[in-house]
Design a protein that fits this description.
By secondary structure, the protein is of the alpha+beta class. Among the domains are: 88 residues, SH3 type barrels, CATH 2.30.30; 78 residues, Serine Threonine Protein Phosphatase 5, Tetratricopeptide repeat. The chain has a 5-stranded antiparallel beta sheet. Strands 11-10-12 form a 3-stranded antiparallel beta sheet, with no helix packed on it. It has a two-stranded antiparallel ribbon with strand order 6-7. A hairpin with a 4-residue loop joins strand 1 and strand 2. It is elongated and about 105 Å long. The chain starts with a helix and ends in a 10-residue tail after the last helix. The N terminus is likely disordered.
């Protein structure tokens, strides 16, 4: 067991390592130097990559998939230490069991049976290094000892050779990544994804900083940085900023333009949703303007899907109709004809305590909110047909004809233009 002088040297050495410096406050370092002068008996030892050894006990038993270790030094200071800072762990058991171990070892013969007995005793007393040493000694005396081989993680293969699980994985061409075995290709992918996550977090932080600069004396610098963004990994940060800046629609417009310049599937999807779902007309129009350079079948299909009362409110159907008119895509004509008039369901509240009927605003089938219900009232669902003027305007713009809301005439016209394809259009 180390004496007080040796322990003091170990503490001083550990205090110069990076992890030790990051883990202690100035007061704790002072007290550490004072406490190092007393005799201690450490149960576990962490050998640090930065130099030095920390003696004490684990607060939580270490596992292979741990990223950090919770450790109490022999002077009572609790630390959280990154696994990446640790070169090696020596688990020695309690000081009392260490003394018992020395006595038991001296009294036990250096034979196969003796070392097996010592190994089992060490396992019971959580002295893992000593347990391993005795099993290894058994193999020196009896290389084919099955109990020792299994305890050390060996398996007997079909060819009669003993191999550890690690050796078996290596034979399969696998490598270790953060405590588990993966293929080389999977490791490369995981490392790439980890690097991308780091870059995404960095970009998100930068975007947050630049957005805060908008509207200040540093706005010009922030705008220049945002306008230069082309990295797809910036989309997450832009969307976070867009959601947090609802009180500043001018800033949201800047972020919408950033999404348009990036032009990935994720950013385009966000613009599509803004173009229909935003209650602010200026933002809807900005999103639509930034979608036009990326217009194609996918963009048209999204707006067509939002013409359905099952997917959209009455205003949203008109926003989608307006967008299709701006895109001027003839493939949208059948869907627009079908959406000239749509039926929407609403809940209304009827009845009251005195038997009078009182109709109130209820909740529509597509998400509109309403008032609460009074005692004795009941809920009734009604259907209401509504014309969609923006849908009609889109049809007129694309087809250059106008049959108003006469769906039958629109179908006849389209059928004559498309050789019978108009039969596919049905009334709602």
């Amino acid at each position: 067991m180390p004496n007080a002088k040796a322990h003091a040297q170990n503490i001083i050495q550990a205090m110069h390592s990076p992890v030790w410096k990051r883990s202690l406050t100035a007061a704790a370092v002072w007290s550490m130097g004072f406490l190092a002068l007393s005799e201690i008996s450490a149960a576990d030892v962490l050998i640090l990559k930065g130099g030095g050894r920390l003696q004490g006990q684990f607060l939580v038993t270490p596992a292979d998939n741990d990223l950090v270790y919770r450790f109490r030094s022999s002077d009572g200071i609790e630390l959280t230490i990154s696994k990446s800072e640790v070169e090696e762990i020596e688990q020695m058991g309690s000081p009392e069991s260490f003394e018992d171990y020395e006595a038991k070892k001296s009294a036990t013969p250096d034979t196969v049976e003796g070392n097996l007995e010592l190994a089992r005793w060490c396992a019971e007393n959580k002295m893992q290094n000593q347990r391993k040493a005795h099993y290894e000694r058994v193999l020196e005396l009896d290389p084919e000892n099955a109990a020792a081989r299994r305890a050390l993680g060996f398996k007997k293969m079909i060819d009669g050779e003993w191999r550890t699980s690690d050796e078996e994985m290596e034979d399969q061409g696998k490598v270790q990544y953060k405590g588990r075995w993966v293929s080389i290709q999977e490791k490369e992918l995981l490392e790439k994804q980890a690097e991308e996550r780091i870059q995404t977090r960095k970009l998100t932080g930068n975007i947050k900083k630049w957005v805060k600069m908008l509207g200040t004396a540093k706005e010009e610098t922030a705008l220049a940085e945002l306008e230069n963004l082309r990295d797809p990994k910036a989309v997450a940060g832009l969307l976070d900023a867009y959601q947090s800046e609802k009180k500043r629609p001018g800033v949201q417009k800047v972020l919408i333009k950033c999404l348009g310049r990036i032009g990935t599937e994720t950013s385009i999807t966000a613009l599509l949703q803004i173009a229909v779902d935003s209650p602010v007309e200026e933002l809807r129009l900005t999103a639509l303007d930034n979608l036009k350079p990326n217009a194609g079948p996918g963009v048209t299909e999204y707006f067509i899907s939002r013409l359905s009362p099952k997917q959209s409110t009455h205003p949203q159907i008109n926003y989608a109709g307006y967008a299709l008119g701006e895109l001027n895509d003839p493939s949208a004509v059948p869907a627009l004809i079908q959406a000239l008039e749509t039926t929407h369901k609403f809940q209304i509240v009827t009845g009251s305590q005195n038997g009078q009927t009182s109709a109130g605003m209820g909740r529509s089938s597509n998400g509109g909110s309403g008032t609460g219900f009074s005692m004795g009232s009941s809920v009734k669902v009604i259907s209401q047909k509504k014309t969609n003027p923006e849908v009609l305007d889109a049809l007129k713009k694309i087809t250059k004809v106008n049959f108003m809301y006469d769906q039958a005439r629109w179908i006849d016209w389209y059928q004559s233009q498309s050789g019978g394809a108009g039969a596919l259009i049905r009334k709602e």
